[in-house]
Amino acid sequence: MKTKILLAVCALFFSMTSMRGQNISLPAPQLADNVSLATALQQRCSQRSYDTVRPLDKQQLSNLLWAAWGYNRENKRTAPTALDKQDITLYVFLSEGIYRYDARENTLVEVARGDHRAATGKQPFVATAPVNIVFVSDTRLLDNAVMSAVGCGAIAQNIYLYCASAGLATVVRGSFDAEALNSLLHLDPAQKVMLAQTIGYPAQ
Ligand SMILES: Cc1cc2nc3c(=O)[nH]c(=O)nc-3n(C[C@H](O)[C@H](O)[C@H](O)COP(=O)(O)O)c2cc1C
Questions:
Q1: Which among 42, 53, 175, 196 has most CB atoms closer than 10 A?
Q2: Which residues are CB-neighbours of 195 under 8 A, at least 6 positions away?
Q3: Closest residue by CA, ligand 1 atom 15
Q4: Arithmetic mean of pLDDT, 155-167
Q5: Ligand 1 centre from 193 Cα, in Å?
Q6: What is the CA(45)–ligand 1 centre distance, in A?
Q7: For residue 1, is pLDDT > 70?
Q8: Residue 83: which region, alpha, beta or left (left: phi > 0; alpha: psi -120 to 50)?
Q9: Torsional sign, CA 14, 17, 18, 23
Q10: 38 belongs to a structural domain
């Protein structure tokens, strides 16, 4: 009887774990202050050739995402949004899966398993660059495409400047198949894919 109860408890535990998916807890962001803003601005550029075998480690991902769209004050973020609506969600495509960036918990929440990087754009490098970020705006929070696009632009520039300061390559992208991303990310009609951005170490 005891064994049966133990087995039932184990089964329940494992089914609950699998329902939660394989979330990735990120370490606290640590931005080294070793590159001046002037240098980062000087070095900011778009790059389209990436080292396809060197992934970003968890610390780099944490730093990158915090710089992009983390909380830097209570309830406020590193990028501005119109009326502080904070309508934008970042989806992070890695070789192992797709994740939603939960900035409050500093966690990547699993959305889908497997390598879906190729779905983030029409240019070949997106399939093998280590990280692609897809920007999604929720029109229930901010129903103004221009204002949302400006917010996305601010996040994109944060990513550019972080990458310039950390020796990473990046390019922001407007070319993607929004329909394919809608179904892959299980978006509802109120959620709009706005922008994508590729990040990785530059090709050797
Ligand atoms: C809204 C927007 C959309 C863009 N879309 C793409 C794109 O789909 N593919 C791409 O390779 N670059 C894209 N870019 C990057 C531009 O081509 C790039 O910023 C421009 O050539 C200037 O180069 P720089 O960023 O190195 O200064 C986009 C840039 C912006 C601001």
A1: 196
A2: 134, 135, 149, 152, 153, 156, 172, 173, 174
A3: 172
A4: 97
A5: 17
A6: 9
A7: no
A8: left
A9: negative
A10: yes
- Ligand 1 atom with least separation from CA of 176: 8
Report yes or no: 154 and 143 within 8 Å, Cβ to Cβ: no
Question: Per the structure, how many domains does the chain have?
Answer: 1
Residue 32 confidence (pLDDT): 79
Residue 8 counted as domain residue? no
Q: For the chain, what is the mean pLDDT?
A: 92
Residue 131 lies in a domain: yes
3-state secondary structure of 140: coil
The set of protein residues with a Cβ atom below 6 angstroms from ligand 1 is 45-46, 48, 123, 171-175
Strand partners, 97: 94, 113
Type of residue at 76: K
